[in-house]
Amino acid sequence: MNFEMSTWTPSSYIIVNLARQIRPDEIAFSGVNSTLPMLACLLAKRAYDFRYTYINVAGGVEPQPTTIPLSSSDPAIVAGSPAIFANQDFYDLCARGGLDLVYLGCAQIDAEGRTNVSVIGSWENPRVRLPGGGGAAVMLPTAKRVVTWRTEHSTRVLVDTLDFVTAAGNMATLVTPLGVFQRDTQRGARFRLESWNPVVDIAEIRRQTGFDFDAPDATPTAPMTAREGEALAQLDPGGRLAGA
Amino acid sequence: MTLVAGLRAASYGVPFQPVAGVHGSDLAILNGWRTITDPYGSGKEVYVIPAIAPDIAVIHAAEVDEEGNARVYGSPFWDHVLTRAAMRVFVTAERLVPTDVLRQQPELTLVPGFMVEAFSVVPNGAWPGSMHPYYDVDYPAVEAYMKDEPGVLEAHLDAAPETKDQKQEKEGRQGGSIRDRS
After folding, report:
1. How near does any CA of chain B get to the CA of A168, in Å?
2. Which of A18, A19, A31, A116 has the most CB atoms around it within 10 Å of its CB?
3. Considering the entire predicted model, what is its pTM?
């Protein structure tokens, strides 16, 4: 599959825009159930000219996997690592302020970047019991910046009021198939729309979003570069993960 | 992370473990977690998680010897803290190896035999999960098991390596209790 520079799939839009959050010399981490961030981190290694360190939840440090597994915690993503940095090691690194960028998932998110991965409905009388936060309650406040993503952009995901606050803290970026939101990592700061997928407009994003947001400097998202497209095609031949 | 903190408290032999973060999470209210102020004067308020000491930890290792020394290849995930926090440790392993093999690279032994109460050699024991470096996740088996239909559980159990090995079982599996803790 060729990834055309001008046409995004929902998944390729998320992967590339997640990759674009990584800055030179950072230490970035991707966790469980995080296939899109895993691809983003591997893509950044190939498509960008700066150095950064990638650590993943299987203990891989600068891994060089030859195949991309479906699961982002598969031991296959440790392949090629010169070191194993195990579960408690990277939690501790985050807790003491050593992780610059952490990709953390969410089921619901609010305008201040708080996340719910615990329950839909009330805790005592849930409609859906979710898998729980993993390390979210510790990592969201202690990572320097947290980036999250959702494959569904809707008013039930981007909400005004969370059903449950699993974690709060240094959320910086939210990427959906429709747009990229940024916020300052300080208490009370709200998401603002940074850029949007040209398949929609800002009015459509407002209709699909459960919280109010400003978009003072928002622009259409820059198209996929040739190098980003090549890296994605190498990592995901056939578009099994990025093609949808 | 807070679960690890509780397990660490048990493995360190202390009643609670301070942990970073948690501020602003409803989980603290739900679980009744308390904070303490740094007694050394920094003014920082830190959540403390009560000790979690499992009665039994069961881990699946790559190799085990007759003494229960257990080797894990690749990433140990939670095996280390679980075996230190639990009151009793049981090991299942892919295969039995002579102790001399472990002596050649003792740093690969995650659990020393003196901590292990009993072990059993269970080839493919992590199925349908993966066991590095021997086999990957059996995704078709996982998908079949996730179907919400009658008979799914029975079909899953019938396909499990333990069931397939039942004949072998009668002939006597390797392993067993290696020490009596009473």
Report:
1. 5
2. A18
3. 0.84
